[in-house]
Design brief:
The chain is about 35% helix and about 20% strand. The chain is globular and about 60 Å long. Helix 3 packs parallel to helix 5. It is built from 14 helices and 15 strands. The chain starts with a strand and ends in an 8-residue tail after the last strand. It has a six-stranded mixed sheet. Strands 12-11-13-14-15 form a five-stranded mixed sheet. Strands 1-2 form a two-stranded antiparallel sheet. The protein has three domains: about 160 residues, AICAR transformylase, duplication domain (Cytidine Deaminase, domain 2), CATH 3.40.140.20; about 130 residues, Cytidine Deaminase, domain 2 (3-Layer(aba) Sandwich); about 40 residues. Strand 7, helix 6 and strand 8 form a beta-alpha-beta unit.
Length: about 400
């Protein structure tokens, strides 16, 4: 297949639309559904991300994409009982495989942003992973293959219209890439930068501690940023992105946005949230929305008389600012990556509030001394990579 006609482009009024190869054949097969323009943008960016995560860590990887940026990314490490509960899979009578764990963690980091996602998997999709995907609201999935059982499960989703794409894992694109904007063609060399342990060897802070897990987490952060619309910042802990801030014009706003998402991920694990009693039959998405409001500044929207009864069996106590801060102070050993340099120490100040202990960023700001000094104040280890990771 040399080309594939699409229903429309980014918007319904943008016709005609297609994907095609100038030379050779498309490296994909559509096994089910009719993917659209944005679906393929998410699929191809996500596939590159998980392929690099697999190479960097040796573990199966998954990412959950929305609007050409990842909402979550993770590798296939085991789930704790608490993680199973906050990701809403504790009711599944399934022995999760590493690939299933990777997707559960990628989806679970920011479930609200992942609603209606496009999934990328580094490995052949197995039955267990397909069963997890089947119960989530999602637009489609790309993987290097599917077991027969997995394909049948996925084909039954969305009344047979779920988008299932198979990609040739041996496909290698040309070294030069092009895109057209306003009738003008842009050309550049592909970003083939390899991110491995050596990427973080230039440590510029007083603290030189960099554990093996920290190296893995920083690699996950930087590879995720490589495929995230810039400006972008990524917080990672225990093999999964827990907060991604994408497409902000200001670096501090990226850091705040991603930090708030990381905080929400950790607050979901607090006894106060784990103890919420939802009314019977309330769907996972509605539970996610209720939790997001409950742990936020507008908690009265779900605690007011006449409102809480729609969501909870028993009215919860308010999660006070002091209680939330006390719980967040328990979050430690978080890694943070930035796709470009920190221009001010305020980014480190904000990162510290979310438990960040390790930072990787390009360096090169005229205020590097101030940024390093702020890291030293909190005992944070910071590496200068010397390499920017803008993605547009």
């Amino acid at each position: 297949m040399k080309e594939l006609e699409l229903k429309y482009g980014c918007n319904p009024n943008q016709k005609p639309s297609r994907i095609y190869m100038e030379e050779g054949e498309l490296p994909i097969k559509v096994r089910c559904g009719k993917p659209g323009y944005i679906n393929f943008l998410d699929a191809f960016n996500g596939w590159q991300l998980v392929s690099e995560l697999k190479k960097a860590t040796g573990l199966p990887a998954a990412t959950s994409f929305k609007h050409v940026s990842p909402a979550g990314a993770a590798v296939g490490l085991p789930l704790s009982d608490v993680e199973k509960k906050i990701y809403w899979v504790d009711d599944m009578d399934v022995e999760f495989t590493p690939l299933a764990n990777a997707y559960i963690r990628a989806r679970g980091a920011d479930r609200m942003s992942s609603f209606g996602d496009f999934i990328s998997l580094s490995d052949v999709c197995d039955k267990e992973t397909a069963l997890v995907i089947k119960r989530e609201v999602s637009d489609g999935v790309i993987a290097p293959g599917y077991t027969d059982e997995a394909l049948e499960i996925l084909k039954s989703k969305k009344k047979g219209n779920y988008n299932v794409i198979e990609i040739d894992p041996s496909y290698k694109p040309k070294a030069l890439e092009r895109k057209e904007v306003f009738g003008i063609t842009f050309e550049q060399g592909r970003n083939e930068l390899v991110i491995d342990d050596n990427f973080f060897s230039n440590i510029v802070t007083e603290s030189k501690e960099l554990t093996e897990q920290a190296k893995i987490d920083l690699a996950i952060a930087m590879i995720t940023l490589k495929y995230t619309q810039s400006n972008s910042v990524c917080y990672v802990k225990g093999g999964q992105a827990i907060g991604i801030g994408a497409g902000q014009q200001s670096r501090i706003h990226c850091t705040r946005l991603a930090g708030q998402k990381a905080d929400n991920w950790f607050l979901r694990q607090s006894p106060k949230v784990l103890g919420l009693q939802f009314v019977d039959g309330l769907g996972r998405a509605n539970r996610d929305n209720a939790i997001d409001v409950y742990i936020g500044d507008e908690c009265q929207d779900v605690l007011a008389e006449g409102e809480w009864q729609k969501v909870f069996k028993v009215k919860p106590e308010e999660f006070t600012r002091e209680e939330k801060r006390a719980w967040l102070d328990k979050n430690t050993d978080v890694a943070l990556g930035s796709d470009a340099f920190f221009p001010f120490g305020d980014n480190v100040e904000r990162a510290h509030k979310s438990g960040v202990k390790y930072i990787a960023q390009p360096g090169g700001s005229i205020r590097d001394d101030n940024v390093i000094e702020t890291c030293n104040k909190y005992g944070i280890t910071m590496s200068f990579t010397g390499l920017r990771l803008f993605h547009h």
